[in-house]
Amino acid sequence: MSGSILQMLGTLYNIEPFFFSSSLNWIPSRYQEDLQPGKGDHITITLTFLRKMKIDNPGPYPHDQVATTKVNRGINTQDGLYLDSDSGNSSVLCRDLLAVHMVRSVTRSTIISYHPSPTSGGTSAKNLYSRVHLAGQSVYWTNLFKVSRDPTFVLLTILWHALYAWDEALTCLYEHISDQESAVINTKDNKLTLRTQELHRIRAHLLYYASLLDDFKKSVKFVLETPNPAMDALEHGTEGMLTKEDSAERLKTECNNLLSEIDRLEMSRSNQSKRLKNIMNLAFATVNIDDSKTMQVLTKAAAQDSAAMKQIAYLTMILHVLLSLPSSFIAGIFGMNITIINPSSVGTLAHYFAVAVPMTLMTIWAVVAFNPKKDYAGVTEGQPEASYSTRLAWPVRAWKSVFLSRTSNAQRDLEAQEDPPAYSHSDH
C-alpha cells in the first residue's frame, strides 16, 4: 500500500503510525492505546514466528533467491534455514510476520493485519482469513464464541495459527537433525568437515529461535494482562452469555494453554540444541581419532627415517675412520720429532711412550671417574650416586671384581674335578 492509503487507513481507525513502521521493519512490539473505560481500546501485537515451506512446491518464494541462498551458506539467522534432504523433499524454515491491530469496542470490533510482500513467502491476508474462519467453524471455538462477547478470543485464534506453524517447523527440524546424526555416523572422514559446518549453521538458528519464542510468550502474556475495557459495559449481559468475570477466567485459561504450549516448544528447541551439540562432539571426536591415527603413522615413518639416518651416520663414521685414521696415523708418525725420524732431534721413541701411555691412562681414569651415568660396584638403580672417593677408586674396584671373578671360576673348576659325577648302577 502507498503512503497515502496508509494515512487514510490510520485516520479512519485511529491507528498510530508506529504500527506500520514496526510492521514494515519486522520489529516485535505489543502495546495498548486509546484506552476508554467502558467503551473500548486499541491493542497492537507484532511478532515474528517460524514457518515451514517446501522448496519443490510452487509458491511465492522466488526460485532464483533459493538457489542463491543455497550457494551462499553464510550464517545469517535472519534468512531462512534450508534443510536439504537426500530424498528430494527439501524445505526451508523461514520467518513469518504476524502484525495485528485490534479495535475493541462495545458495538463492533475490527482486526487490521499487515502482511509482507508475496515474494517474502509470508502468510497472506487470504490465508490468515481462511485459518481464522476454519477455527470459527470448529466445535470448540463455535461454542466459545456463542457464550462470550469478548473479541479477544478471535485474536487468540490468530495466535494459535502462529503456534501451529512453530510446531510444524520444529517437527521438521527434528527429523532433519535425526538425518544429520545418521549421516555423521556413516560419513567418511573427508566429508566430516562439511557436516560440522552444516550442524554449526543449524545450531546458530536454534539459538535465534529462542528469542523468537520469548517474544511469542511476551505477546500472549500481554493479551492476558490487558483485559477488554468494553466488557465493563457488557457486565450485565443477556441470559446464556458469560459474565465479565467468567469471560476473563475463560480468557485466562486459553492464554495459559498457549503459554504451556510455548513452553513445550521451547523445551523441544532446547533438546534439539543439546542433541545437536552431541552430534557435533561426535563429529569432532571422530576427526580427532582420525588425526591421531594419521599422526601415529607419521611417527612410525619418522622413527624409521631416524633409524635409517643413524645407520647412514654410523656407516659414514666407519668409512671416515677407515679412510682417514691410517693416513692420519702415518702422518702423525712421520711428523714425530724423534731421532728415528729426525736424526737432529734429541727425543726418542721411548720418551714418546713414556709420556703418551700415562696420559692415556689418566684420561681414561678421569672420563670414567667423572661420568655420572656410570654404574659402580655397590651402587644399584634407585640408590644415591656413589661418592667421589668411590668414583676415584674405580680402577681398584674393577681389578678386584676381575680378580675375584677369576678366583671364583678357578675354585669352581677345581671342585668340579675333585667331585666326579656319580653314576647309578641297576641290578639286572
TrEMBL record:
Its main location: membrane. It is found in: Membrane. Signal peptide: none annotated. It is a multi-pass membrane protein. Keywords: Membrane, Transmembrane, Transmembrane helix. It comes from the Eukaryota. One of its GO terms (cellular component) is membrane. The chain crosses the membrane at residues 312-338, 350-370. InterPro entries: CorA_TM1_TM2. This is Magnesium transporter. It comes from Piloderma croceum (strain F 1598). The lineage of its organism: Eukaryota, Fungi, Dikarya, Basidiomycota, Agaricomycotina.
